[in-house]
Known about the structure:
By secondary structure, this protein is an alpha/beta fold. It contains 16 helices and 13 strands. Strand 9, helix 9 and strand 10 (297-300) form a beta-alpha-beta unit. Helix 5 packs parallel to helix 6 and helix 10 crosses helix 15. The model has no long low-confidence stretch (mean pLDDT 95).
Amino acid sequence: MDTDIWRLSATTLAEAVATGQVTAREVLDAHLERIAAVNPGVNAVTTVMAERAEAAAEAVDERRAAGEPLGPLAGVPFTVKDNIHVEAMATTQGMPALSALVAAEDGPDVRRLCAAGALPVGRTNMPDMGMRGMHTRSSTHGDTVNPWDRTRTPGGTSGGDAVAVASGMAPLALANDWEGSIRVPAVFAGVTGLRPSQGRYASDNRLMDREPTLATQLFPVDGPMARSVADLEVLHGLLCGADPRDPRAVPAPVRGPAPPGPLRVGVVADPGGLGVDPRVRAAVEAAAGALQDAGYRVEEVEVPKLEEAVRAYARLMMTEYSLGWESLRPLMPEDGQRFLELSMERNPPVDLAEYVRLTGERSGVQRAWAELLDGCPLLLGPVSTAQPGEPGAESRDAESLEEVMTALRLCSVSTFAGLPAVAVPTGVADGLPQGVQLISRPFREDLCLDAAAAVEERLGTCTPIDPRQ
């Protein structure tokens, strides 16, 4: 081919395999070579699944040679975050103590991508139990490095996947998002990421066969990452739908009805007026200009119930974490312990009566957002109002934690309200990628993806890249 295989998009690779320009094995070998070349410097992939990927690639090539139909992602490699089940592999969630928890079968989303012909090429790094917020550091595997600047965090908790995609180790990734865990590393690494509506994709987040608690049922969602919005949209179509292993997943249509007339987009560069880095503001303004050029009606709005939502979300989460903290504490590294203890001091756990009241407060937040998005179906804003900082800053002290979590306030409120969002790059400033997120009503990921595609078409993409030393 005319360019390095690892540089190509997922859709381009799938077409090349389907038309015989390249074999699935050649695609896989190119990505395995790329992993061997760059992963030692960035520590994004923790386990290479070469044997399984090779068998899957050979099956794709055999099907094509026999003239059988291929799946839409046949021959395309993808990575899987270390808290998503992969058959015969431990779901360690970054912790040595969980290394014996070998999954009996693939998670529903892994199964769907494999059924589409995609090749699972590697497991990726994440913080211990995902308890970190803004950085990807595991006591098992260490720190993942931002390929743009080694002194800056790659974000968390899906930093391994974001860095793998950004540096060409795989064009696609399966990760998950709580309070920006897909969106933050996507922007910090210069790739795209989708947080779907709760119930949109089937997933299995049981640990040691224990059913998830209420907050763990409501807030975290599995979602995809890619280098282009077109690839992200293909993944979205494949991952949508019900599955008997996840009673939350519903069979909602992939795309909703087309809105009449020009779509209105609400813009907020500084949610709540708490401060925003000028480069982040410029990214939001650039995206707003791109959307206006594409025919969207752009206007400034205020984020509804921001303070109430952020506080209620944090207290619900800290209350649930506190219930198992004494058992979990000995298993966590020192900085992970410090992060959660600082978080519980910042938002102390509540009693049962207050917990129940806070679950009701969520309905009020959802209602306020529904009213906003009824007249303005998209909201454009920052993922983080700050630039990527020092790795592990959120575990340093209370002041640093406050700065980090305040910067993520739009991620917090959209997570609490259960809304879909797409993170998309807008360019590079001072050597670091910049980006925004587009938020819409539940099950209208299509509106987010369409708007993100318009931004990407006008502002371009910035990965894959060679990691900077």
